[in-house]
Design goal:
This protein is α/β, with parallel strands linked by helices. The chain has one domain: Rossmann fold (3-Layer(aba) Sandwich). It is built from ten helices and seven strands. It has a seven-stranded parallel sheet, sandwiched between helices. Helix 5 runs parallel beside helix 6. It is globular. It starts with a strand and ends with a helix. Bound molecules: nicotinamide-adenine-dinucleotide. Nicotinamide-adenine-dinucleotide binds next to helix 1, strand 5 and helix 7.
Length: 262
């Protein structure tokens, strides 16, 4: 990644998936800029960014399009020759609706807000990124298998992730002729702030550990290394993909009988 410059969106702390990706990219020579949501998180992101040699730490709330535009204007000042990649690791839903039956708990207001922040923000970022990638580039978003299969309590986030994955395919098709690749990394359950917002997250985590082919959950380094592949020239022929990094959990249909009896 030496000589490549990119923007990391979605670091909240050192457990964040975006942070796992950032530190791997840094180890491989990338030059990084970061965004944060709100001053409290800014205080956490600034020292993390400094630890990977970056003093480009910009506020960005994707719910506010003016904020997104000022982030990109500030980025232009620091990277006038453009950028090579963006990591979008942003998701939000009212946690009171990540609990119980989807049919009962989902409101129109939170459905729209979840979609705007967790899905449409990626399209708005792609619109701005593509114009800043004169040499081509790579966009990566984070998704979860609750997009295509029902996970307890994942509810409206699953619907948003389904739309996000569809967006990846449309964006990949539109931006492909300009050499901009667009992919999603589907991570297994991880202990992060966002992950903790889903009711019974611990049960999902333990279920994955018991039933995934690799018999473990995934680490920040697992995610970082796969993201490195998707953001670098190693995946130069790959676009529009949803790439699972979940210890193989997505291929399992039914738990092993021995585990069911235990
Ligand atoms: P996290 O809480 O560390 O990161 C979520 C980030 O989203 C935070 O940095 C937060 O500030 C940001 N965000 C939320 N609303 C925003 C807004 N309006 N504007 C700007 N930023 C906003 O948790 P994480 O698990 O690292 O989540 C990163 C991504 O990974 C999310 O898209 C999440 O859905 C996805 N993901 C998480 C898991 C998991 O188990 N943790 C699994 C698969 C996918």
């Amino acid at each position: 990644m030496a000589g490549k410059r990119g923007l990391i969106m979605g670091v909240a702390n050192d457990h964040s998936i975006a942070w796992g990706i950032a530190r791997t990219l840094h180890r491989h020579g990338a030059e990084l800029a970061f965004t944060y949501q709100g001053e409290a998180l800014g205080k956490r992101v600034t020292p993390l960014a400094a630890s990977v040699g970056s003093d480009i730490v910009l506020p960005c709330d994707v719910e506010d399009i003016a904020s997104v535009d000022s982030t990109f204007a500030a980025l232009d000042a620091r990277f006038p020759d453009g950028i090579d990649f963006i990591v979008h690791a942003i998701g939000f839903s009212d946690k009171s609706q990540l609990k119980g039956r989807y049919v009962d708990v989902t409101t129109r207001a939170n459905f729209s807000r979840t979609m705007t922040i967790s899905c449409f923000s990626f399209t708005e970022i792609a619109q701005r990124a593509a114009a800043r990638m004169p040499r081509g580039g790579a966009l990566l978003t984070l998704t979860y298998a609750g997009s295509t299969r029902v996970m307890p309590n994942y509810n409206v986030m699953g619907v948003a992730k389904a739309a996000l994955e569809a967006s990846v395919r449309y964006l990949a098709t539109d931006l492909g002729p300009d050499g901009v690749r667009v992919n999603a990394l589907s991570a297994g359950p991880m202990r992060t702030l966002a992950g903790a917002g889903i009711a019974d997250a611990r049960l999902m985590y333990n279920h994955q550990k018991a039933h995934a082919p690799l018999r473990r959950t995934v680490t920040l380094d697992d995610i970082g290394n796969s993201a490195l592949y998707l953001l670098s020239d190693l995946s130069g022929g790959v676009t529009g993909e949803v790439h699972f990094v979940d210890s193989g959990y997505n291929i399992i249909s039914m738990p092993r009988p021995a585990v069911l009896q235990a």
